[in-house]
Specification:
alpha/beta, four-stranded mixed sheet, binds uridine-diphosphate-N-acetylglucosamine
């Protein structure tokens, strides 16, 4: 497992012309809530297309601590079984390493009407509170206490037929509240929910198990309570990772003759693909889930601003910035989701990028020649951006702290070596 090599670094020798095919792995952000949703049932669940990533390993550790038994049937297929006793707490040591651990609150609340979960850690890209999760749970009948860094959720009786309106379409809060509601008698309505493909995947998974969720993919979700005993044992395949696909599409435009991107859903990144096409990068759709992107020597500058789905994904903002350093002219990148998601800017400037930060916008002055340097990965998507920059830069780039990268990209250097990149993992 890559994730154990905490102190690895990547060495990249840039400017090799890339070529070939890339298979996209299963989605990290769909896998995590679905893994936690298996806590809703005692029945066996098989999941396919689960990416081999540090965040998945951490989620599995947490599930095992709680009382599940996980067996790898092959590299990306897992069987999740219930051992006899299930705990309802998630300790600091496990939770601090991954923010998405808060997603166990929903299934525990649904099953036991209680949960004791340490406040999360994870990517340092802003304050990232969980107030929206907790406010929603209160509306469903929960009493909430914060004690010694733990959130304690307790509920005597679920409140039925509630209409909850989220103040902001938070991905995590939407997922937690949907999972919380599936056994509540009557109809629970959640409005202004997030509509990300990963949320649709979670709802499809829950419905396949026997939940009744309507309005999937719209901003109003309706959940009709079912009995826990009625949930079924199922096998389910996780959707492909749209952010990994997007990262390789940018790489194809920046540094390849051409790259074929396989096993992804173009419909999940429509807005992103429109922006790529606006840069006058040639993209050929070979089929619904296979796309060919051609290297672009005359990238047009295209400004973007991030917004909740179906807008431009914040998880592609850092990679887009690298893309724009190679465009002829100025572009503006505006980050609307996270208040501190520009940590890659200083590192990219070390490689020669000409960037000016003002509040939540960055002005990219392209085109600049990037030159290899030592840089540090600061969060997951920033790390991916540095890899792209290293592959475009002349000479050698060393990226330290790449454990961030292992949280979200399966076998990244193997996939990149296969398309002719010079990228090596070494001990720091
Ligand atoms: C998820 C994704 C992450 C992605 C993000 C936005 C997973 C595991 N992670 O994170 O990769 O970048 O969606 O697309 O799926 N907020 C609050 N209070 C809350 C919850 C959120 O103020 O209770 C704020 C956050 O601080 C942030 C914004 O809402 O500024 C969006 O957060 P949210 O949509 O909840 O993102 P995550 O679920 O944490």
């Amino acid at each position: 497992m890559q994730g154990k090599k905490i102190l690895d670094k990547l060495i990249i020798k840039g400017q090799n012309l890339l070529n070939g095919e890339v298979e996209i792995s299963g989605s990290k952000n769909a896998s995590l809530p679905i893994l936690f949703a298996t806590l809703l049932t005692d029945k066996d669940i098989i999941l396919n297309n689960v990416p081999n990533l540090r965040d998945v390993t951490l989620s599995i550790k947490l599930l095992e601590y709680i009382g599940k038994k996980i067996e790898y049937l092959n590299n990306n297929k897992i069987l999740i079984r219930q051992l006899s006793n299930i705990k309802y707490d998630a300790p600091y040591d496990l939770v601090r390493q991954m923010r998405a651990s808060v997603l166990i609150i929903g299934p525990m609340f649904a099953r036991y009407k209680k949960a004791l979960v340490s406040l999360p850690g994870g990517c340092a890209i802003g304050i990232r509170p969980i107030n929206l999760h907790l406010e929603g749970l209160k509306e469903l009948g929960a009493d909430i206490d914060l004690v010694n860094g733990y959130v304690s959720v307790f509920c005597k009786n679920f409140l039925s037929n509630k209409i909850i309106k989220l103040k902001y379409p938070s991905v995590g809060a939407t997922e937690n509240l949907i999972m919380s509601s599936i056994f509540i008698e009557g109809k629970t309505v959640i409005e202004n929910v997030a509509k990300e493909p990963e949320i649709i995947d979670l709802c499809n998974f829950l419905n396949k198990m026997g939940a009744i969720i309507k309005g999937i993919g719209t901003s109003k979700i309706e959940i009709f309570g079912v009995k826990k005993e009625n949930l079924k044992s199922i096998e389910y395949t996780i959707i492909p990772d749209r952010i990994e696909a997007g990262t390789f599409i940018i790489l194809g435009a920046l540094a390849s003759e051409s790259l074929v991107i396989k096993n992804f859903e173009a419909g999940h990144i429509e807005k992103f693909l429109e922006k790529v096409e606006a840069t006058e990068t040639k993209i050929e759709k070979l089929s619904k889930n296979i796309l060919k992107v051609y290297g672009n020597k005359n990238i047009k500058p295209v400004s973007i601003e991030t917004s909740p789905y179906p807008g431009f994904p914040t998880d592609m903002q850092a990679q887009w910035m690298v893309f724009m350093t190679q465009a002829e002219g100025k572009s503006i990148i505006k980050e609307n989701i996270f208040e501190n998601r520009f940590m890659h800017v200083a590192e990219m400037m070390r490689l020669g990028a000409n960037l000016e930060i003002k509040n939540n916008t960055v002005l990219v002055n392209g085109k600049t020649e990037l030159k290899g340097a030592n840089v540090m990965a600061t969060d997951l998507r920033a790390s991916a951006a540095l890899v792209l920059a290293g592959l475009v830069a002349s000479g050698k780039t060393e990226i330290s702290r790449i454990y961030h990268l292992d949280r979200g990209y399966e076998a990244i250097e193997k996939k990149m070596t296969k398309i002719n990149a010079k990228i090596f993992r070494v001990k720091e």
